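Good morning C.,

I know you're traveling, so I'll keep this short. The sequence:
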Amino acid sequence: MSIECSRCKTSRAILKRPKTKDALCKECFFLCFENEVHDTIVKGKLFKPGDKVAIGASGGKDSTVLAYMMKLLNERHNYGLELILLSIDEGITGYRDDSLETVKKNQEEYSLPLTILSYKDLYGWSMDDIVKKIGLKNNCTFCGVFRRQALDRGALKLGCDIIVTGHNADDVAETILMNILRGDVARLKRCTAKRTESEVLDEGTVIPRCKPFIYTYEKEIVMYAYFKKLHYFSTECIYAPNSYRGHVRAFLKDLESIRSSTILDIIHSGETLVVKEQVRLPVQGKCEKCGFISSQNICKACVMLEGLNKGLPRLGIGKSSKVKILKRNTKCEDSCDCDNSNSSTHKPISLTMTSEERLF
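The tokens, ready to paste straight into the viewer:
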């Protein structure tokens, strides 16, 4: 027995929305999905006419649907945006090289310009190289920090006004749970923001970010891509299963199977949670080495890169015994009195240890 669409009442329903449990036909699902994303953009004031927008494109389901949706809504509602695809090649053999082929197909289908930047060109290290040094534990920390800065570098290079990412409701709910589990309540306000603004530095050094899919379920993004027959890369990163986020994701899926509204409930809780006035995020400034945004004198990316280049890959992710020894031995060039001062290989290092930064 067929079920009629609960919206138009004329067509046969072919799916039940995970978010609302409404039985909808294909066309009504498309319309509801697109209108909800449009409402998020309008109510959140994510863009203004004339903005040059860098779309973070990885070739996965989220970024593929995002690129399609941005082009569609930009033309349908006359946003007046200039859209550009920006991809980051982390250097993961058997994963990113294949997904970038999908991005190139999307470029042709959507007629959008594409720019690709690689970790190897920007930092001298690929993720495969980093994993060989650091192992399978904590590698996602390197990737997250480098990727965030790489997007900023690419957007600045292209003269973009804003970066749009495909972070969906599941991603945001996971980040809220991670911050709570880590006791990092100060970041709850930032991770639940539809549009992330930073303290104003010199003009052109801070690129705001926005998340049009902040209330969009991952399952519905997959369904939209499937019924629209969009080309996307579905293989998970080969290093992702070892990440802390993976455990939180599994926990969230268990909760969602019991209560379908769990994801939106967590996001709403994060948005409305009152944080004590004295709990504040670090004031953001510019890194003294690379000039990009940082809450410390030296940004996390530079600290990690310095550690990799000096054979101390854990320098940026924790205070290991090697790091403690390094800090004790770190002196200024003019008054170095450490045990290694007479060594011809001794080179003072000027680094500031920082706590682990989050993805957003």
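Safe travels,
E.
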